[in-house]
Phosphate carrier protein, mitochondrial (Darwinula stevensoni), 361 residues
Amino acid sequence: MIRSLYETAKANPFCSPLQVAHCESDTHGLKSPSPHRNISAAAASSKDSVQGNSCEFGSAKYYALCGFGGILSCGLTHTAVVPLDLVKCRIQVNPDKFKNIFTGFRITYREDGFKGLGRGWAPTFIGYSLQGLGKFGFYEVFKIFYGNMLGEENAFLWRTSLYLAASASAEFFADIALAPMEACKVRIQTQPGWTNQLRLTVPIIMKEEGWWGFYKGITPLWARQIPYTMMKFACFERTLEALYKYVVPKKRDECSKGEQLIVTFAAGYIAGVFCAIVSHPADTIVSKLNQDKGSTAVDVAKKLGMRGLWKGLLPRIIMIGTLTAAQWFIYDGVKVYLRLPRPPPPEMPESLKKKLAIKQE
């Protein structure tokens, strides 16, 4: 499996175009270079290639370190915004008491004190660290895999669909790891009188509902997270591409690492706003579903109505916008620190340029 993915990575159009072509020779003379090598870029040099990467693009080590970056990216950021997430969940499940973000913070602080704003931090950190491992690690895997299936030219022409398919596939598996901790988090944050300790929450859920108690919210979780992640990755990738093409006054390779991370943060925030909007109704259902025993996603949706499904949107836009920007910043920062390959936005293959030129003649 790993060998197959490795071979896929080497032929993938999203691999760095700034690779040096090596000509091999034997006793009978020169061999023809591999058709997958980008000969036109052989004379080019980049800061990354000069400094050297710590691993090869698409290798097992590359995927593992990307997964580690995902753990830090999602685990740290989601834990940092637990107070905002707590208020958002309470607005969703009890809008009569927690009318808006300001009253939500005020009532929570008055009833539980400053410490109460951190309720649910443990399942948040564990759950979203596991999710980040799958989200970012598998995204890299599926992007390379699907890109190779499409071929170099189609991968470029259909790159938005490629981003959408790769991110959806990655999130499907990531949510399986997230679901149990998400169920624990929502109960701790929204059910009055519930223990605030994860080690006590797990056996209570197991005793009352069994394993189903941890996974009864998996379907609405997929409905929330898969569209969110598809928007998160596709919008980020295309926004990053547009920023370097139309906004940033110089090419990516001419920017310093710090400047590149600033562009990453900006693209991440823009993507985050759209992520919050497309995934909010499902997020409300997840919060309410894990609060009400024996209910289904359809029951919750009917009970809340269209207006109720959009409760808590403003704090979620603030939270997800900041969260997504920070996640991409951390993830890209980890890649820089660990010297992982960071291919620039994809460019049109030379073969496709020639075909278009022939058509225009």
User: Anything to note?
Assistant: The two ends are 45 Å apart (CA to CA).
